[in-house]
Specification:
By secondary structure, this protein is of the alpha/beta class. It is built from 9 helices and 8 strands. The chain has a single domain (about 1-270), classed as Metal-dependent hydrolases (TIM Barrel, Alpha-Beta Barrel), CATH 3.20.20.140. The chain has helices at about 20-30, 55-60, 80-90, 115-125, 145-155, 170-180, 200-215, 240-250, 255-270; strands spanning about 1-5, 35-40, 65-70, 95-100, 125-130, 160-165, 185, 220. The radius of gyration is 17 Å and the shape is globular. The two termini are about 10 Å apart.
Length: about 270
């Protein structure tokens, strides 16, 4: 079984693709690639191209194999928004919370994040951080460095943490943080923009194997694509390419199963 633990329903294409069509396309791609479940990440932006958490809640209400990770703007949070997250978590309408350092000017260890971490611990759901380079200019990559996650993980050992995108390009930092914190995981989404061509494939194979050989093992890595954050030409082929990449890794079948689905099942309680 395959679970894509990191997809969006935003529109990054130059084409005008409606939200309903984006959902239809995702379900078509999942069927073609035998992807059983997908975790959709809400965006902080709220417009036609970037559906809000509330819009996604209504859209996915009857979807049994699609799950939503909510979000909140740290720099614009208030008690009303926190109460809404608490309500959604208590009713299991969302299965985690995504925060976007680098797209917002805050560090993961800032005290302003504490109430979010309290909620995640209360409901035993993960907090997902954007880590590494930002799409476009962002607001400062210094906020999205993996090293900041370590401080949160050490202070809150019961908090489940996912570092999105392997903290690319700070892979070595991510590797060390994964190895020393039992409560930290990383997804492999968004590693390429177009496809795993020969150079990209070889490069990322080496990086993943390096992480695993460092003692992290397959328990800490989670399959995700970041679709549709990729080039238009790979809109319908991106998942297949990503799956082929994982299958190309010279690791055990057991570790591949952990990366493809078992880790996400356990972490998100799917």
């Amino acid at each position: 079984m395959i679970i894509d633990s990191h997809v969006h329903l935003d529109n990054y294409s130059e084409r005008d693709i409606s939200l309903a069509k984006r959902l239809e396309n995702l379900k078509k791609i999942m069927s073609q690639n035998k992807i059983a479940k997908a975790v959709i990440i809400a965006s902080m932006e709220e417009d036609e191209e970037h559906p809000s958490m509330e819009v996604l809640l209504k859209l996915l209400e009857k979807e049994k194999n699609l799950f939503l990770v909510g979000t909140i703007s740290i720099t614009k949070s208030n008690e009303k928004k926190l109460r809404r997250l608490n309500e959604l978590l208590s009713k299991k309408k969302i299965i985690g919370i995504k925060l976007y350092p680098g797209y917002e000017k805050f560090y993961p260890y800032d005290k302003t994040c504490d109430k979010i971490y309290d909620l995640c611990e209360k409901y035993n759901v993960p907090v997902i951080f954007h880590t590494g380079e930002t799409f476009g200019t962002g607001l400062g990559m210094k906020y999205a460095k993996p090293e900041h996650i370590d401080e949160v993980a050490v202070k809150r050992p019961k908090l489940k943490i996912v570092m999105a995108h392997l903290g690319n390009p700070w892979i070595n930092d991510t590797m060390v943080i994964l190895s020393r914190n039992k409560n930290v995981y990383a997804d492999i989404s968004g590693l390429v923009w177009k496809s795993f061509d020969k150079f990209q494939k070889n490069s990322w194979q080496n990086e993943i194997i390096k992480i695993l050989k460092f003692g992290v093992n397959g328990n800490k890595l989670i399959f995700g694509t970041d679709w549709p954050c990729n080039e238009d030409s790979t809109y319908f082929s991106f998942h297949k390419d990503y799956i082929n990449f994982v299958n190309s890794l010279k690791i055990s079948k057991e570790d591949k199963n952990k990366i493809f689905c078992l880790n996400a099942e356990k972490l998100f309680k799917l």
